[in-house]
Design brief:
Structural class: alpha/beta
Oligomer: single chain
Radius of gyration: 22 Å
Distance between the termini: 48 Å
Length: 326
């Protein structure tokens, strides 16, 4: 693990000095917040490049909606949607993640230039996924998952959501390790919104430290999700549309970064990119204060962050020792 608040490093990916920002490109007609907007390959690639320009460190490309009630697309269609976009972004030097539950799509995307496999099922949906990832040596996101969300199959009953998610993720990570994936290439994701109600999502966010106990970098994917709509609406109001939850998403991104998340996955990048940088600046100030000792004055710095020249007037006296003007 790196020194950045236990944030960790994923072998095979760049090492960022703060929480990374993963931008989302949904090449789907039916994703819950932006379905159909980037369905065309050219538009999807252009959008991915725009996300990078706005501050995304990597881009997650998916061709199958995982919203509750969504029907699965067939393998041929998923490949048609995803591979050209992965290839187009990778050719521009973008660090690409492929969001898929199919081993065949993961393998083809990695061959096209993807650097990371983000499987919301953690390898449960396709038994061939773990061997495929292990064979390539690619980093792998293991999300907490209790099954497809079709036909009301939510299975969101928990006695203690934090303990159960941690335990189930631990068991899944052990299975992934047994399948040959290197431990320094595993990322864990609590699966906010998947088989969970709003209060359960909030409990998981309140206890991200418990997820760090798994010993792997942590991805937090809260962007525009239903629980944020519930929070914004209050007890009596109607949740705002998904695309009106970006400010709330940025707030969660700052909290996740402060809690040591390795990355946050978001649809709207600019606000979150700012949020994680502010969180890192505060973290840096805390580290500097700790190194100096509690209560010690911090050295003055210029606007560029360089140590400031000694101020002859700081103690109220001028160069000649005469009392300075206050």
């Amino acid at each position: 693990m790196s020194k950045q608040s236990g944030r960790g490093r994923v072998v095979g990916l760049p090492e960022w000095d703060r929480c990374a920002v993963m931008g989302v490109v949904n090449v789907t007609p039916d994703s819950f917040s932006d379905g159909g907007r980037w369905f065309d390959t050219t538009a999807a690639v252009k959008h991915g490049l725009q996300l990078v320009a706005e501050g995304a460190d990597l881009v997650d490309v998916g061709g199958e909606s995982t919203r509750p009630g969504a029907s699965r697309v067939d393998e041929t269609e998923e490949l048609r949607r995803v591979i050209p976009v992965v290839r187009g972004l990778a050719s521009e030097g973008v660090v690409v993640s492929v969001d898929t539950m199919r081993a065949s799509v993961a393998a083809r995307a990695l061959a096209a230039g993807a650097a990371l496999v983000n499987d919301v099922s953690g390898g449960l949906a396709d038994p061939a996924m773990i061997p495929a990832v292990a064979d390539t040596g690619a980093p792998f996101v293991v999300m907490h998952w209790r099954g497809f969300l079709e036909g009301g199959n939510v299975r969101g009953v928990y006695a203690d959501v934090v303990t159960e998610v941690v335990d189930e993720l631990h068991a899944r990570v052990e299975a992934v390790l047994a399948g040959g994936v290197s431990p320094d290439r595993i990322v864990v994701d609590p699966g906010l919104g998947f088989s969970k109600e709003a209060d359960q999502d909030l409990s998981l966010l309140a206890h991200l430290d418990r997820l760090h106990s798994l010993g792997h970098p942590l991805l937090v994917a809260a962007s525009r999700k239903r629980f944020l709509g519930r929070v914004l609406a209050g007890p009596e109001g109607a949740p705002p549309p998904a695309r009106e939850r970006d400010a709330a998403t940025a707030a969660v991104s700052a909290l996740a970064a402060q809690a040591g998340a390795w990355a946050v996955r978001v649809h709207e990048v600019r606000a979150t990119a700012d949020a994680v940088r502010v969180a890192r600046a505060v973290e840096g100030a805390r580290e500097e204060d700790s190194a100096l000792g509690t209560g010690a004055p911090r050295p003055a710095r210029t606007a560029a962050g360089e140590p400031a020249a000694p101020d002859a007037h700081r103690d109220g006296h001028g160069p000649s020792g005469a009392e300075g003007v206050r």
